[in-house]
From TrEMBL:
Alphabetical list of Pfam families matching this protein: CASP_dom
UniProt protein name: CASP-like protein
KW Transmembrane (keyword) present: yes
PANTHER family associated with the record: CASP-LIKE PROTEIN 1U1 (PTHR36488)
Database matches in InterPro entries: CASP/CASPL, CASP_dom, CASPL
Species for this entry: Miscanthus lutarioriparius
Parts of the chain that traverse the membrane: 33-54, 66-89, 109-133
UniProt keyword terms in alphabetical order: Cell membrane, Membrane, Transmembrane, Transmembrane helix
Membrane topology: Multi-pass membrane protein
């Protein structure tokens, strides 16, 4: 999504026999929801990479494992909200809003919408995997807890 951009040139008027054209560009930076989506995924990727690199050092202590589990849940929530906001804007771009008189743009920026859709599908897959990992982590922490 961070590299997603597409231009579209349209004829806006004809002066004599010469058409006047206007170039329109769709970029992910034009929509705050897409910017939030990219930032949320970047934070999650950096966090997960860091945890993978220092996992052996952290998980030797039980309390540190609990902190990592809690941070994993925060990251999952961050990913879910980023994907949800981007999905809402993608739906608006695809179908528009008749009541607000916002026209859809995917008929003109097809590849922009297609790449955004792939990014969204990948992100929702990542959210599902994070949820599965969180459930496994919770089950692992429950089995390791003393006094049961």
């Amino acid at each position: 999504m961070a590299l997603n951009a597409q231009s579209y040139t349209a004829v806006v008027a004809i002066v004599g026999t010469r058409p006047l054209t206007q170039t329109f560009t769709a970029k992910f930076r034009d929509t705050p929801a897409f910017v939030y989506f990219v930032i949320a995924n970047a934070i999650a990727a950096a966090y997960n990479l860091e945890v993978l690199l220092i996992r052996r050092l952290i998980l030797r202590r039980r309390m540190a494992g609990l902190v990592v589990h809690m941070l994993d849940m925060v990251i999952m929530a961050l990913l879910a909200t980023g994907a949800a906001t981007a999905a809402a804007m993608a739906e608006l771009g695809k179908n528009g809003n008749v009541h607000a008189r916002w026209n859809p743009i995917c008929d003109r920026f097809g590849s922009f919408c297609s790449r955004g859709g792939v990014a969204l599908a990948s992100s929702f897959t990542g959210v599902a995997l994070m949820m599965a990992l969180n459930l496994l982590s919770a089950a692992s922490n429950a089995q390791c807890s003393p006094g049961q």
